[in-house]
Write a structure and sequence with these properties.
This protein is mostly beta strands. 5% of the residues lie in helices and 56% in strands. The longest helix is centred in the first third of the chain and has 14 residues.
């Protein structure tokens, strides 16, 4: 049936009118603006950015029929994604061989990481209608502080002024899956608004090898963004966001006498919930004909995670983050030589409380509230002089729990007359231990270490990029090299061998090459490709869940009237190591996971200006693979639905 669907989609594509060079030429992707790369709040064109960045725009998200945000991040060079179990399961992202908690995730500019675990679970983020993703790679702590060693992911919902209108989408498909989304957005002279909601339900599939228990989930997301411009030089923005994930999961076999000890097994009644509220309010005032911008903002994140087992609660935690920032940016110079100076002050408080039920043991986890305060001072300079762009940034963090830290970054790029751009950067980063690493506890298996030191990173990159055909095609390659010191890892000290984190005395090293290519010679064809070769080691051993090679290709074909489009997605994940806890001592055993290639094919057709139908096949060739040890993954699946927009 799935192969028949594949043939049918290809046949439809072949029946479309022949491609012709349209008078309306496609835009140069290098003109795309990215806002994450500067603390000034002003956008920078990708062609002028002397750093490694990728933008997945709203058009690409729609063409690839993105429903789970982490899936499309697999198309970003340098990014490795691993999901534990089925959709809704914990999903981690690693950039350039970094740890998952070394990547800062922003949602509409709000820090989204769970304060307890110190990282954001991307399994809880379902795609909104009309959104874009910016990914900034490399050490960015000089701009954003702790968590940004590997890079920054900024998921941005479009405003009512950027994407006005009303839309709704409904679809269904394999594994008892139903999903829907709706959006209402608009703008007047002084107001703009965007309200959206998404829902994803799936009955799921077995995630244990040979298991029969389907692992399903329900995820809900809602977002509201309001902009008010009472004067030409004043803008107020408010953002509210809510997400809730209720997902089943499986545990590992815990009976040491079982031959399946340490393997994932069917675990009826085991599930978790993750609920989060986010908010941001900012006011931006400009002066001196727009050359001086001052922004005052406040934001919060409130997360609650609870795990359940048959009979009640198994574990839980609550965390809050409150952050206030003041940013002042001044631009001066001429059209030929432009300077921008930015200063920022960030104050942040993170707090958490362990809600795991008491067992009555004197070794129970601390269940009171703990908090950490941090004051960050940022300075950034950006220069544009003809075809040269460069800049430097420095940040000092004053922390009441950890040693104060100063991080910095310098970067530069130059575009030659041949439309060749060279760029290079060097930066440092820091990552403070998370509360789970410091104070977490699980009776007999894990205990935190309050004496942990922050991890530190330094690294450099150098790249070259070539544009062809007036920007209709671009290819680039970047080499990167990083070193992490005081890496936090899990130790198993005698005599009890209870897992506890510690700081390594050896260095963790990461280096590799990222290659990107984009092609849009005519409006009827868009191709995006990425390849990454990575070597990430610690004391000579390969770091886990980091493929040595990753690649993706997305090719979208449009009919001449653009009413029909079809997208072919190919994603390759190379061989990688993982840790298996299959020894009763709980000391992990290193295992190798085989490489795999997944192929998705989709199509959509616009019946009228308002109505569209679409369908897709995921894992077209029914590949069997694992991206986390002993967690089975889905086979081939098909989905279809309708969309209305006006």
């Amino acid at each position: 049936m799935l192969k028949t669907s594949f043939v049918s989609l290809i046949a439809i594509a072949a029946a479309m009118p022949a491609h012709a060079q349209d008078a309306d030429q496609p835009t140069d992707p290098q003109d795309t603006i990215i806002v994450t790369a500067s603390r000034s709040g002003e956008g920078v064109a990708l062609r002028n950015l002397p750093a490694s960045a990728t933008v997945i725009d709203a058009e690409a998200l729609d063409q690839r029929q993105t429903r789970i945000v982490s899936d499309v991040l697999r198309d970003v060079p340098g990014v490795a994604v691993s999901r534990i179990g089925a959709i809704g399961g914990q999903t981690q992202l690693r950039i350039r061989g970094s740890e998952a908690n070394h990547v800062l995730v922003l949602i509409d500019g709000i820090e989204a990481a769970d304060p307890y675990y110190g990282e954001y679970d991307l399994g809880t983020l379902i795609a909104d209608p009309a959104a874009r993703i910016e990914v900034l790679r490399g050490q960015q702590s000089s701009l954003y502080g702790s968590d940004a060693i590997g890079g920054v992911v900024n998921y941005i919902t479009l405003s009512g002024r950027e994407a006005p209108g009303y839309s709704a989408r409904a679809e269904g498909g394999s594994f008892g899956t139903f999903s829907g989304a709706a959006r209402a957005a608009g703008a007047s002279d002084t107001l703009d608004y965007a309200v959206s909601g998404s829902w994803y339900h799936t009955r799921g599939y077995p995630t244990a090898r040979g298991g029969t228990r389907d692992i399903g989930s329900d995820s809900v997301g809602a977002s509201a963004k309001l902009g008010w411009t009472p004067a030409a030089n004043l803008k107020v923005t408010g953002v509210l966001r809510y997400s809730n994930t209720d997902a089943e999961t499986n545990n590992s076999e815990s009976n040491p006498a079982s031959p399946r000890f340490g393997y994932t097994v069917d675990s009826p009644g085991v599930r978790f919930t993750n609920e989060a509220f986010y908010g941001l309010l900012s006011a931006e005032l400009t002066a001196l004909d727009g050359r001086w911008t001052n922004t005052l903002s406040g934001q919060f994140a409130d997360t609650t995670r609870t795990g359940y087992k048959p009979g009640g609660i198994d574990y839980g935690d609550k965390g809050q983050r409150y952050k206030g920032s003041f940013v002042s940016s001044f631009r001066f110079g001429t059209d030929a030589i432009s300077h921008r100076l930015t200063a920022a002050v960030d104050w942040e408080r993170e707090q958490f409380r362990n809600t795991t039920p008491s067992t009555g043991s004197p070794f129970d986890a601390f269940r009171g509230r703990r908090s950490t305060d941090n004051l960050g001072l940022v300075g950034q300079y950006e220069l544009t002089a003809g075809d040269f762009t460069g800049g430097a940034s420095v940040r000092h963090d004053d922390n009441n729990r950890f040693a104060d830290a100063t991080t910095w970054r310098v970067q530069a790029g130059y575009r030659l007359p041949t439309d060749t751009r060279v760029h290079a950067a060097y930066g440092t980063g820091v990552k403070n231990p998370g509360y789970y690493e410091l104070f977490g506890f699980s009776s007999g298996t894990y205990i935190g270490n309050p004496n942990l030191r922050p991890e530190k990173s330094k690294g450099w990159e150098a790249g070259i990029e070539q544009s062809f055909w007036d920007g209709k095609a671009t290819i680039g390659a970047t080499y990167f090299d990083s070193k992490l010191t005081d890496e936090i890892y899990i130790t198993y000290p005698a005599p009890n061998y209870t897992a506890t984190p510690g700081n390594r005395t050896t260095d963790s090293k990461q280096h590799g090459v990222e290659v990107t290519a984009s092609l849009r010679p005519i409006r009827q064809l868009r191709i995006d490709a990425a390849y990454t070769h990575l070597k990430a080691t610690e004391a000579g051993a390969t770091e886990v869940r980091r493929p040595g090679d990753m690649a993706s290709v997305n090719a979208t074909l449009f009919s001449r009237d653009e009413r029909f489009s079809t997208t072919l997605t190919v994603r390759y994940n190379g061989r990688m190591d993982d840790l298996a806890y299959i020894d009763p001592s709980y000391v992990p055993v290193r295992v190798s996971l085989k490489p795999f290639t997944l192929v998705n094919l989709n199509a959509q057709y616009r019946l009228s200006d308002r109505f569209s139908v679409f369908g897709r096949v995921e894992n077209l060739f029914d590949v069997k693979y694992e991206e986390v040890f002993s967690f089975a993954t889905p086979g081939a699946a098909a989905y279809g639905g309708v969309r209305v927009a006006f």
